[in-house]
Amino acid sequence: MDSRQLKAFVAVFEERNITVAARRLHLSQPALSGTIKSLEDLLGTQLFMRQARGVAVTEDARILYPQARRILSQTDSMTHQFRHGSHTSRIAIGVGADIAGPDIVAFVHAARQAVPALFVSLLEGCDGDARLATEDERCEDELFLTLSVDPYVLAIPEGIGADAALPWIVCPNHPTHQRLLPFYGAAANMPAAHAGSLRLALELTAARVGICVAPESLARSQAGVEIRPMDGLEMSRRVGLCYAVQSLDKPAVAMIVERFREPSGALV
């Protein structure tokens, strides 16, 4: 398998039309069809099905597409570095409001190991070439690569006795709120406070306003808070990398995704 075959595959996959793809690659239609046929023979599977207008993609083609984009991106990166003498890669990463500090540190450390001389820009919210966020925050057109699974725990003010009856601090606009209502019970109607994020709920807990349910990673990094397991409720969240397929065109993104796809790629 060579880059010529992968470029042909990507063009046909994206255009869904042999004629348009051939024009894009400055090839004749027979030459492009022959390249696709040789790739299918090599892989032992059909990638496209001809239709009256254009082609339809098979499930195997959908699996191959992001991998092909990633390989081509890495090849372009190596070519650019050696031709232009540039050895610095840049990436902008958006960070969700409720991602724990230790997870951010672990991610940046692993990313810098995966990409030599990486220049990282950390941004708040949804900006960036990719985003460190929870699966609930994944946009419709994004892929999600799980990096860690974070259980929810009960967070109480430090030094408060286990038998103390404290009101709830709730996050009405958070995706977990509806799932937690049965756990809160009638007390949800009389909360001690509302918080705009889980991080802010923990700040209110540390201020002894009440108690809250929060991801363990966040709760452990909040001063003035102790954690307890939640009897009767098993809930967790997935923290990971949100990225669009097109972002794999950026070599740094492709290399980081490849790094975290490895068996040892979880955040530690």
TrEMBL record:
State if Transcription regulation is listed as a keyword: yes
For this entry, the protein name equals HTH-type transcriptional regulator BenM
Q: Which Gene3D superfamilies match?
A: Periplasmic binding protein-like II (3.40.190.10), Winged helix-like DNA-binding domain superfamily/Winged helix DNA-binding domain (1.10.10.10)
Record the organism: Achromobacter veterisilvae
HTH lysR-type domain: residues covered: 1-58
**Alphabetically ordered keywords of this record:** DNA-binding, Transcription, Transcription regulation
Q: Which GO terms describe its molecular function?
A: DNA binding; DNA-binding transcription factor activity
Q: Which family does it belong to?
A: Belongs to the LysR transcriptional regulatory family.
Name the source's superkingdom. Answer: Bacteria
Q: GO CC: one term?
A: protein-DNA complex
* One Pfam family linked to the record: LysR_substrate
Give the matching PROSITE patterns. Answer: HTH_LYSR
Q: Which gene encodes it?
A: benM_5
